[in-house]
Design the sequence.
């Protein structure tokens, strides 16, 4: 169903070819303190990646500039000419202030810490 | 052996008719394309698929191969050229202690490899490779023999 949610970016003039955006391959894991989102974004560097938390929405947008110089003639091409976009809705379980992002060789790791209220805690029994 | 998947369809079970349309759609896809839904399993995503896309370009005196190979360390990638075939391999072995309580460390290993045949002979000693942002770019200079050369032909 995710592919239905991708937004197609079209520019107003419609003269240049619009870049397609796709949802990158991603994975979400949970540990005691946080949810860890890993997204594979090959070709995206630090400057062309934008991770924003706006209210309830977490957006990861990465454009890649894998343009080939004019002098290169393609023999064959398999890498799609697309940008990445991933959107999530955050609920009350996530502490929005503590979101950390790390990008290393095209792999983005987002750590979304859990809110204190949902962390497991031991309750002492009195008496 | 189970041939028909057991299902509680809302047609037969009035209680589950309250499930959302999205759940219904997901179930429909699961039934119609079981292979597709298995792609979403954790096990698949846990490991990188075994192949990766490659672009091959040609320049006046070189071939340029570009491969999407995210998440490796530079030293874990090997590039080989033999008999006109370029082989790119990424091999990673990582040991992580997932839980303090678990004494045994889990070892994760992944290997991806891809071979493409190159259209012409190459100089084997001047191959260069750059790994940046999870994209590997290999420059393969063409050998002298295949560069266009003028040959004088005697006409008798």
Sequence:
């Amino acid at each position: 169903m995710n592919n239905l949610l991708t937004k197609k970016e079209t520019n107003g003039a419609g003269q240049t070819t619009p870049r397609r955006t796709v949802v990158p391959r991603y994975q979400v894991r949970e540990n005691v303190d946080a949810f860890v989102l890993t997204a594979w974004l090959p070709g995206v560097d630090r400057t062309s990646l934008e991770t924003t938390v706006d209210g309830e929405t977490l957006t990861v947008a990465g454009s890649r500039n894998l343009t080939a110089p004019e002098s290169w003639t393609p023999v064959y091409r398999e890498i799609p000419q697309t940008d990445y976009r991933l959107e999530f809705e955050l609920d009350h379980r996530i502490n929005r202030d503590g979101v950390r992002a790390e990008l290393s060789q095209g792999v983005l790791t987002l750590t979304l810490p859990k809110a204190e209220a949902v962390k497991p805690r031991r309750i002492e029994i009195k008496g | 052996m189970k041939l028909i998947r057991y299902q509680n369809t809302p047609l037969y079970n009035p209680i589950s008719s309250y499930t959302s349309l999205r759940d219904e759609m997901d179930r429909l896809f699961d039934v119609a394309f079981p292979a597709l839904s298995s792609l979403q399993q954790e096990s698949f995503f846990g490991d990188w698929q075994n192949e990766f896309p490659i672009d091959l370009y040609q320049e006046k005196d070189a071939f340029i191969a570009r491969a999407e190979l995210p998440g490796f360390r530079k030293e874990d990638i090997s590039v080989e050229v033999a008999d006109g075939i370029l082989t790119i391999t990424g091999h990673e072995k990582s040991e992580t202690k997932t839980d303090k309580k678990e004494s045994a460390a889990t070892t994760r290993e992944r290997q991806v490899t891809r071979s493409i045949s190159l259209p012409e002979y190459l100089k084997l000693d001047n191959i260069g490779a750059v790994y940046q942002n999870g994209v590997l770019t290999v420059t393969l200079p063409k050998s002298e023999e295949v560069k266009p050369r003028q040959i004088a032909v005697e006409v008798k």
Summary: The mean pLDDT of chain A is 81. The domain at 21-65+83-117 of chain A is CATH 2.60.40.790 (Immunoglobulin-like).
